[in-house]
Amino acid sequence: MSDKLMDFDEAVRRYDPVIGLEVHVELGTATKMFDAAPNVFGAQPNTMVTPTSVGLPGSLPVVNGKGVEYAIRIGLALGCQIAETCRFARKNYFYPDLCKDFQTSQSDEPIAYDGALPVELEDGTIFTVPIERAHMEEDAGKNVHVGGADGRIEGADHSLVDYNRAGVPLVEIVTRPIEGAGAQAPEVAATYVRTLRDIFRALGVSEARMERGNVRADVNVSLREGPDAPMGIRTETKNVNTFRGIDAVVRYEISRQAAILADGGTVQQETRHGQADGTTRAGRIKSDADDYRYFPEPDLVPLAPSREWWSRSVPVCPRCRPPSDAG
Ligand code: ADP
Ligand code: MG
Q1: How far, CA to CA in Å, does 163 sit from each of 51, 106, 282, 315?
Q2: Ligand 2 centre distance from Cα of residue 174 (Å)
Q3: Pairing state of beta strands 235-240 and 81-82?
Q4: Centroid of ligand 1 to alpha carbon of 23 (angstroms)
């Protein structure tokens, strides 16, 4: 069933788009975030795994100091405050590629928060993207669907799981709602992620290869009547890993949601999936943070990265604020 769409130009004349981006970057550390398994891409499935990577009973995690240092580097480059103390949290859910039943992440105590990233658009204007937080977490494994088209689960005969990626260090960077981009919202979204990719490379924290999924964006889009109206219901399109795809998702969702609103309908709050043709299709109904039952990770001590430690070990890059200015 194809979606009803409103012409993009008309949609942004009638409605004010608000977007939000959650960008995940895989860090290029030698080992995983909480265990000693090598962090390498493309190895034989399930060869780069320890009991901790898959959460076997009795296994215990240990924090990778390099991962913390890289997360702080990213936070500084985005103008964030660095937390004096922070904790890891369990985000509880089951998925075959997350067989330990929870993802080790951070919830209300991120390592970096309150930043901003200016990005330069095609027409030379600078748009500043407000950043809420950058937090540390681990990647999940990878489900491999066999027998269907394009490795999709639809029509597959069976599925395999490769846990080599389980426990690979991630930093997730979450923007505040990005307002005021108007017709440039698709470009702002794509340019923001491209700018991040360049920063990750300049900082040396990740190879940031899009085609390997080193950098992936969850793209939130909503529409409202005008800049003073309350924000509308958003959709979240998961794991988009091309700049063109990010632009296309924002553009498509604006046209799709505008058609729904113009018909007097309501947008369904849901997770969607980006398609190769630049459209999105519905996935599951979005879970709330409550559904994850976050709680502090009992097997890891709180982190208190002292300024003496990180200001010595973190090289200052051109875009970073000097450590004396950061929280
Ligand atoms: P979740 O936990 O569901 O991912 P978050 O609070 O982390 O939700 O928000 C996800 C992203 O969506 C953030 O970048 C946030 O700024 C953005 N966002 C929140 N509300 C809206 C909205 N109404 N429209 C567009 N983006 C939004
Ligand atoms: Mg989120």
Answers
A1: 11, 21, 27, 33
A2: 7
A3: unpaired
A4: 12
The predicted-structure confidence for 133-177, as pLDDT tens digits, reads as follows 999 999 999 999 998 877 778 889 999 999 999 999 999 999 999
- The answer, yes or no, to whether residue 285 has pLDDT greater than 90, is no
With the most atoms of ligand 1 within 8 angstroms of its CB, the residue from 234, 240, 246, 292 to mutate is 234
Which ligand does the CA of 137 lie closest to?
2
State the distance from the centre of ligand 2 to the C-alpha of 48, rounded, in angstroms: 28
- Ligand 1 geometric centre to CA of 30 (Å): 32
Percent composition of the chain: helix, strand, coil (DSSP 3-state, to 5):
25, 30, 45
Identify whether the C-beta of residue 76 lies closer than 8 Å to the C-beta of residue 95. no
State if pTM tops 0.85.
yes
- In DSSP terms, 165 is beta-bridged to none
- Fill in the DSSP letter of residue 256: H
By alpha-carbon position, which residue is closest to atom 3 of ligand 1? 288
Task: State residue 165 phi and psi, 5-degree precision.
Answer: -85, -15
Q: Which atom of ligand 1 is nearest to the CA of 287?
A: 3
Residues with beta carbon inside 6 Å of ligand 1? 18-22, 174-177, 220-222, 231-232, 234, 289
Which residue's CA is the nearest one to ligand 1's atom 9? 20
Contacts for 36-43: CB closer than 8 Å, 24+ residues apart: 37/167, 39/168, 39/169, 40/164, 41/212, 43/164
Question: What would the 3-class secondary structure string for 199-246 be?
Answer: HHHHHCCCCCCHHHCCEEEEEEEEEECCCCCCCCCCEEEEEECCHHHH
What is the rounded distance in angstroms from the CA atom of residue 145 to the CA atom of residue 3? 27
Task: Measure the CA–CA gap between 227 and 18, rounded to whole angstroms.
Answer: 9
